[in-house]
Write a structure and sequence with these properties.
Helix content of chain A: 40-55%
Largest sheet of chain A: 5 strands, mixed
Distance between the termini of chain B: 61 Å
Number of helices of chain B: 19
Structural class of chain A: alpha+beta
CATH class of the largest domain in chain A: Mainly Alpha
CATH superfamily of the largest domain in chain B: Aldehyde oxidase/xanthine dehydrogenase, molybdopterin binding domain
Bound molecules: FE2/S2 (inorganic) cluster
Strand order of the largest sheet of chain B: 3-5-1-12-9-10-11
Radius of gyration of chain A: 16 Å
Oligomer: heterodimer
Distance between the termini of chain A: 51 Å
Strand order of the largest sheet of chain A: 2-1-5-3-4
CATH topology of the largest domain in chain A: DNA polymerase, domain 1
Strand content of chain B: 15-25%
CATH topology of the largest domain in chain B: Aldehyde Oxidoreductase, domain 4
Shape of chain B: globular
Helix content of chain B: 25-40%
CATH architecture of the largest domain in chain A: Orthogonal Bundle
Strand content of chain A: 5-15%
Largest interface: A-B, 52 and 58 residues
């Protein structure tokens, strides 16, 4: 079947098998940031934006995104780099395998909320498993980013 | 120190955080054959007949291999990534006629699409002779069911193995007369402990792709911690010369020991070697949970002898370690179960006896801590119970009994405790956690109980006399350096840490050191990243190589400036004559080294170690217990660590935090249990619960460094140590809250709720 979508800002049409998962479709399109960590929708590694809303690409058929906008970390380079600097300053990226999914969801949270609390951050990102970091460093990084953004925006006013 | 002991970001941080294609499956050629395995549905069976005709008729199927396709005289091998000759018995075949656990490979299928392979798997007809499985490790020794009856089973090292008795290993060690010591004690605590086969759960499952290069050699790209061992193991498995195999390690999505076993490599290697076509295998999470290499389930009996005043005089331990269907890492993991925890205490005598047994469970392997977390849970739990019996503070009891710097360690291979801040770690942990002010247990307004528990731990740094660290440093263009290593950065940050060590010696910026690793054709030999060895052992190799390169830079400069090498002063940027009568910048030296030069400006250093200096840790768990539901929620975990000098404090901290949370999982939620027919129940991340960010509370980690003279800039290891304390510390906190001690991990809410109910009655 034919699938038309906007992937990372580019309109495209592809012939696909009806049963193909969005995750596999995206990897096939070279969006290797999208990772698979499970078959049971538990890990969050495969998180992408569907019309700006984070979704698990392992749990959606590619056919379902007909006519819609899909964004992966490849399409968010600048926004990702800003936040990434703060995570890196904590050394909280270890193996990095969970990072793309985590970054997508963290970016979604930081777009949605100006100053989320620790509890809100944890709840929002609860579906993003990380086996390496123990989560604490990721949290420090996000909090530092929020501080920085507050100052930056305050300064701009 | 300028760069060592600073928290520089990891060299690959931004690449990883922005999702660049750097992992095995991101790099696999698009036209790879897809490799999957048909796995045994039975815990013990013999393949009576196997028919693959229908599967081979599927147009997109390239090959189906069964035991019949392998040479009848194929030699057995081990999948454990260890220095040759491996202590782990040679008990594997790529495909065997006898199947020893639910998940044991029956056939290898390769095809051009997932769908075709899936279909082929369903079409292979196998007739099994189903045998009665052996599932109870405590009954395995000398059982009438023998897991490895075959004649070509082989133990290369004297590890006390005997396949006809289901023994993968047996060992005994002691110092002093333990029976006499225990007989003279006021109190002898005699307890049995049990820990389960927890899973590493690295986020990237096992995966490998293979190609054939221009010279007809097999190139294996794999998520592995042990590229050089993979080369040897695959060559042995395929019966081809090692020189025909090249192994490349790209970025790895976590290892924790899982990837110290050659779990996925042999299958695509077989396919590519026979078909000469690229192929890849990517394990599903299901396979990762059911047919992998988890921690050895262990039963331990501990006898702890002490006097009324709190003097611990002797520790006696007997451990039965369940290696499952194959003996990968069996003989060696158990060694740590006894020797690591017992060594924490100054005793008059000790004894440690162990049996490692085969069963028809999934094979075990290496997992962070190796066998230490099991033993640490047992011994630290026993010491906590002793403290309660004596009505003595758990910290005070430790202070009276711990080893100190300079101590001779009979239970630690007769080594000397060359660097040790364990005493300071205790002091600091007590302070940091508010141990004295908070009290062991208090009621909260919401009806829950908040409780504290503590434990200590140690690990080693590298395997002495055996493992080899290697590093090559060369001067590159523009006065920068290339650092080539054979150790695997699996997320731990060793690429960065080793570059920091090089930059410190060469007095350059971190950016001036480009790291390359790992390719067995280009990297210097290194045993690999395991046994807490990289910073300590490979770090020494880097230190030595960089130091020698400095000397050679001086030689070249002296030649060019026409003076003696002793007259040259090198400050990292330039080599100048002492009297200031001439100087060359590093960039000028680099140019000069490429024209009419005969001073080689690349240096390789190999290191071995003659000791395994232990790092130490003290952990305090603060948990909230709901006495109605039995839920145990960690609210705060305090960790104080002596890993010697922190080469990179940030990375050491995150390692510690990650290890603590894995330990929390092992203590409270991670469990592998078996159905009566030998199937694993916890076969996905849905059933097998690793901590999410809602489960671990806050973490506070501080360092209390000693200085290890034999390590690079005083460093010891950290990676494995940090998983050890949560098990016993959390179990102690629960006991402090509900008055019942738990002798098995994980401690489940049901058990806690029942105990709390008993307390109320
Ligand atoms: S792959 Fe695990 S949630 Fe999508
Ligand atoms: S950094 Fe490895 S899983 Fe998160």
């Amino acid at each position: 079947m034919e699938l038309t979508l906007t992937l990372n800002g580019k309109k495209m049409s592809r012939l696909i098998e009806p049963g193909v998962l969005l995750l596999d479709f995206l990897r096939g399109e070279g969006c290797c940031s999208v990772k698979r960590g499970c078959e049971t929708s538990n890990c969050g590694l495969c998180t992408v934006f569907l019309d700006d809303v984070p979704v698990l690409s392992c749990s959606i058929l590619a056919a379902r995104v007909q006519g819609r906008r899909v964004t992966t970390l490849e399409g968010l380079r600048q926004e990702a780099e800003e936040l990434a600097t703060f995570i890196a300053a904590q050394g909280a990226e270890q193996c990095g395998f969970c990072n793309p999914g985590f970054m997508m969801n963290a970016i979604a949270l930081l777009r949605e909320k100006e100053e989320p609390t620790v509890e809100e951050i944890r709840a929002y990102l609860a579906g993003n498993l990380c086996r390496c970091s123990g989560y604490e460093g990721q949290l420090r990084g996000i909090l530092a980013f929020i501080e920085w953004r507050k100052k930056k925006r305050g300064g701009a006013q | 120190m300028k760069i060592v002991n600073t928290s520089v970001p990891k060299k690959d941080a931004l690449q990883l955080l922005t999702g660049q294609p750097v992992y095995t499956d991101d790099l696999a050629p698009k036209d790879c054959l897809i490799v999957r395995l048909l796995r045994s549905p039975h815990a013990s069976a013999i393949v009576k007949s196997i028919n693959k005709k229908a599967a081979l008729l599927i147009p997109d199927i390239e090959a189906v291999y069964t035991w019949e396709d392998l040479p009848a005289d194929a030699k057995r091998f081990t999948l454990a990534g260890q220095t040759y000759p491996e202590p782990s018995p040679h008990d594997h075949l790529i495909l065997d006629r006898r199947l020893r656990y639910v998940g044991d490979p029956v056939a290898v299928v390769a095809g051009r699409s997932e769908a075709a392979v899936e279909k082929a798997l369903a079409l292979i007809k196998v007739e099994y002779e189903v045998l009665e499985p052996l599932l109870d490790p405590t009954a395995a020794k000398d059982n009438k069911i023998i897991v490895h009856p075959e004649e070509n089973w082989e133990a290369l090292c004297p590890v006390g193995a005997d396949n006809k008795r289901n023994l993968c290993a047996h060992a005994e060690s002691s110092a002093g007369d333990i029976e006499a010591t225990l007989a003279a004690c006021d109190i002898v605590l005699d307890r049995t402990y049990h820990t389960k086969a927890v899973q590493q759960c690295m986020m990237e499952t096992y995966r490998t792709f293979c190609t054939i290069d221009t010279y007809g050699r097999l190139v294996i790209t794999s998520a592995t911690q042990v590229p050089f061992h993979v080369r040897r193991i695959v060559a042995l498995a395929l019966g081809i010369p090692k020189s025909k195999v090249r192994v490349i390690k790209p970025r790895i999505g976590g290892g924790f020991g899982a990837k110290q076993t050659c779990v996925s490599e042999v299958y695509p290697a077989l396919v590519t070697w026979l078909t000469k076509k690229p192929s890849k295998i990517v394990f599903s999470r299901y396979e990762c949970m059911t047919a992998s290499s988890p921690r050895h389930e262990t039963h331990m009996r501990v006898r702890l002898g002490a006097m009324k005043d709190g003097r611990i005089r002797g520790i006696d331990m007997y451990a039965v370690s369940n290696t499952g269907a194959y003996g990968d890492h069996g003989p060696t993991t158990v060694d740590l179960t006894g020797h690591k925890p017992i060594t924490l205490y100054r005793t008059e005598s000790y004894r440690f006896v162990s049996d490692v047994v085969y069963t028809n469970n999934m094979p075990a392997g290496a997992y962070r801590g190796y066998g230490a977390p099991q033993g640490m849970f047992a011994v630290e739990s026993a010491v906590n119970e002793l403290a309660a019996l004596l009505k003595m503070d758990a910290f005070l009891l430790r202070e009276k009994n711990i080893i100190h710097e300079g101590d001779y360690l009979p239970s630690y291979y007769g080594e000397t405790n060359t660097s040790c801040a364990l005493d300071r770690c205790l002091m600091r942990a007590k302070e940091l956690s508010g141990w004295e002010e908070k009290g062991l247990c208090r009621k909260l307004k919401n009806g829950k109980v908040r409780a504290l528990g503590m434990a200590m731990a140690m690990q080693g740094s590298a395997i002495p006399y055996l493992d080899v660290g290697g590093a090559t440093i060369k001067l590159g263009d523009e006065g920068t350096y290339n650092l080539l290593i054979g150790a695997s950065d699996m997320g731990t940050g060793c690429d960065t840490i080793l570059a920091q060590i090089a930059a410190e010696v060469l007095e350059c910026d971190l950016d001036a050191v480009s790291v390359f690793g790992v390719d067995t054709d280009a990297s210097p030999y290194d045993s690999g990243s395991y046994a807490s060895s990289t910073t300590y052992l490979t770090g020494q190799a880097v230190y030595q190589a960089a130091t020698e390169l400095r000397r050679r830079l001086g030689l070249l400069a002296a030649k060019l400036l026409k003076c003696e090498p002793e007259e040259i002063v090198f400050d990292g940027k330039k080599a100048a004559k002492i009297d200031d009568s001439g100087a060359l910048t590093l960039a000028e030296l680099a140019v000069a080294s490429q024209s009419g030069n005969d001073v080689a400006l690349d240096v390789t250093a190999s290191t071995k170690s003659t000791a395994s200096p232990p790092p130490f840790m003290v952990g305090v768990a603060e948990v909230d217990i709901d006495t109605e539901t039995g839920e145990v929620r960690p609210v705060h975990y305090y960790g104080v660590v002596d890993c010697g000098t922190c080469i990179n404090p940030n990375l050491a901290r995150v390692q510690t935090e990650g290890g603590i949370v894995q330990g929390i999982g092992m203590a409270l939620s991670e469990n592998v249990t078996y159905a009566p027919d030998g199937r694993v129940y916890e076969n996905s991340l849905m059933q097998y619960k690793i901590p999410s960010r809602l489960d671990n509370g806050r973490l506070t980690v501080v360092f209390e460094p000693s200085y290890e003279k034999s390590g690079p800039f005083g460093a010891k290891s950290i990676g494995e140590l940090v998983i050890n304390t949560p098990g016993p510390a959390i179990a102690a906190a629960i006991a402090n809250a509900v008055g019942t001690r738990f002798y098995e991990l994980p401690v489940t809410p049901e058990q806690v709720a029942m105990a709390a109910a008993r307390l109320k009655m």
